[in-house]
């Protein structure tokens, strides 16, 4: 273990860093203890973590970018992620509440199959969930429920009740994110306009021939978003996944080029970034119900 890096594969490793007692090897809920400063380090997570900010204690780094961590904000990390919980000094006093749970806790439960639905575990920390007062009450109550079950060591249903409360908490978080998306119409419209402009510029340049089709990751990186956040934003605003949205923009561009009889079907395909014309034909047929050649014939008959 390096001084500035913690590889946290087990819940007890995080608990040790935070100076809290381990009550269960696969799950932990606690408030950061007061007067227990910790070292500012980068942390690799081998488990899921949910952080509720309830006090001022510094910034969070994700990659090379710094983000302010506002009161009443939830952020999520999943297995395999690295988050830099730095402070302006090497040792600082954190505050807030934490939920940690290991994937092994979920084995054989319905929640294990549901986890892929909670895409916010791969959001960037800048895309945290800002809770209103009522939402914070709900989250705190569910964290209290889990904490109470952790102390009930005699119950044979303890793990089932803990998992049930985690599932309910995450489902509420998904609902609260829907509220957050809906409440940010101006910001979302700006992002959609930026995405449309980005794709139009890309497809009208020589970049598709050199770099290929625009990907979801390319679009997300260009807009400084995580790919899952971009997909969820688009699904909320347009009903389309990010990939479906990109494909529709590609097909719209293809239709304009197919209207030019001087361009062959292959030339249109290559200009859009397709490596093989048949891949272009397959996508075009899937999106429009007809082949590029059939579409061109329809235009010529008009």
Explain what the structure shows:
With 302 residues, the chain is an alpha+beta fold. Helix content is 49%, strand content 16%. The chain has helices at residues 11-18, 110-114, 133-151, 158-183, 185-203, 207-211, 216-222, 227-238, 242-258, 265-272, 277-288, 292-301; strands at residues 5-8, 27-31, 38-39, 41-45, 48-52, 59-62, 65-68, 73-77, 82-85, 91-92, 97-101, 129-130. A 5-stranded antiparallel sheet has the order 2-11-5-8-12. A hairpin with a 2-residue loop joins strand 6 and strand 7 (65-68). Helix 5 (185-203) packs across helix 9 (242-258) and helix 9 packs antiparallel against helix 10 (265-272). The radius of gyration is 24 Å and the shape is elongated.
How do the strands line up in the largest sheet?
A: 2-11-5-8-12
Number of strands: 12
Please give the share of residues in helix. 40-55%
Structural class: alpha+beta
Biggest β-sheet, characterized? 5 strands, antiparallel
Helices and strands, in order, run as EHEEEEEEEEEEHEHHHHHHHHHH
In what range is the share of β-strand residues?
Answer: 15-25%
Give the overall shape, derived from the CA principal axes. elongated
Return Rg in Å: 24 Å
Helix run count: 12
Could you name the ranges where pLDDT drops below 50 across 5 or more consecutive residues? Answer: 60-69
Topology, element by element:
Blueprint (H helix, E strand, L loop, with lengths): L4 E4 L2 H8 L8 E5 L6 E2 L1 E5 L2 E5 L6 E4 L2 E4 L4 E5 L4 E4 L5 E2 L4 E5 L8 H5 L14 E2 L2 H19 L6 H26 L1 H19 L3 H5 L4 H7 L4 H12 L3 H17 L6 H8 L4 H12 L3 H10 L1
Parallel strand pairs: 1-4
Antiparallel strand pairs: 2-11, 3-10, 4-9, 5-8, 5-11, 6-7, 8-12
């Amino acid at each position: 273990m390096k001084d500035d890096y913690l590889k946290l594969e087990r819940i007890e490793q995080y608990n040790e860093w935070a100076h809290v007692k381990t009550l269960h090897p696969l799950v932990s809920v606690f408030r950061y203890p007061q007067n227990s400063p910790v070292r500012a380090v980068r942390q690799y997570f081998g488990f899921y973590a949910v952080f509720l900010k309830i006090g001022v204690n510094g910034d969070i780094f994700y990659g090379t970018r710094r983000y302010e961590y506002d009161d009443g904000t939830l952020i999520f990390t999943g297995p395999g992620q690295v988050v830099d919980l730095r402070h302006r000094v090497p040792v600082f006093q954190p505050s807030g509440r934490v939920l940690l749970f290991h994937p092994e806790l979920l084995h054989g439960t319905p929640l294990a199959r549901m986890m892929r639905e909670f895409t916010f575990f791969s959001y960037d920390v800048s895309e945290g969930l800002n809770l209103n007062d009522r939402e914070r009450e709900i989250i705190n109550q569910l964290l209290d429920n889990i904490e109470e079950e952790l102390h009930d060591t005699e119950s044979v249903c303890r793990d089932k009740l803990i998992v049930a409360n985690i599932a309910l908490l995450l489902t509420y978080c998904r609902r609260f994110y829907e509220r957050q998306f809906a409440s940010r119409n101006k910001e979302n419209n700006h992002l959609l306009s930026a995405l449309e402009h980005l794709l139009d510029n890309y497809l009208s340049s020589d970049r598709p021939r050199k770099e290929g089709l625009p990907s979801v990751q390319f679009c997300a990186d260009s807009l400084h978003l995580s790919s899952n956040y971009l997909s969820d934003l688009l699904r909320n605003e347009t009903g389309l996944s990010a990939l479906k949205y990109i494909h529709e923009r590609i097909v719209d561009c293809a239709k304009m080029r197919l209207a030019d009889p001087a361009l062959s079907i292959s030339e249109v395909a290559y200009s859009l970034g397709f490596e093989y014309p048949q891949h272009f034909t397959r996508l075009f047929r899937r999106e429009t119900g007809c082949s590029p050649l059939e579409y061109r014939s329809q235009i010529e008959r008009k």
